[in-house]
# Entry
Amino acid sequence: MARCTAPINGHRTASAAANCPACGSRYNRGYNSYSPYSSSYSSSLNSSVSRSSSSGRAKARWSPTGSNILYTPAEIRTLTPVRENVEKRSTLPDLRDVFLCHAWDDRKDAAKELHDLLESKGVSVWFSEKDVLLGSSLLREIDKGLARSRVGIVLVTPAFLKRIQGEGIADKELSALLARDLLVPIVHNTTFENLREVSPLLGSRSGLSTMEESMGEVAAKLAELVTPSTMINCN
# Structure
């Protein structure tokens, strides 16, 4: 029978215990059962990492108590100055909550869907089908809509990209609109990369996208953003 070498060599280190003829096999079995490379440990670690990565989303400071809507850090950075302007303009009379800028080809599809979703949530929307004359300049209507609304939304679709590329939006005018922090791009069926290729200034502004969220979820975030009566939630 193997004898323990602890009285002579001691088991102060892992190697000493592993080399002991009496304790080595028991130690190695115990070590392997708790190995950080075991499948159960790896599975637990991966699960923890997944939970940690998804925990980056949080409620915005303007979210009402009880809201379950979560925003990415990039969305909060982008929307915070817009929200601050919403609060400043909340006392101005006769303002629509949102001006919806869109391509003519989207008026009966994506633009109408977003308009209907917003109005179903109590948001008043400046919409070309109701408020804008046909043939008007895109930039002129954006500027007029922003003046009469708390926030301007630009619904960026493939049709919109074609339209602004053809009209050649002036960087100077677009820069002035973006500097007011009243413009939020909503990217639908395209990407911010495609937008930047056509309009670098507008594409430099982050916004909301339907790539990972439904149009309904985007509308819910916009409704929270533009509701002036919402009390600031510090949680």
The first helix runs from residue 6 to 9.
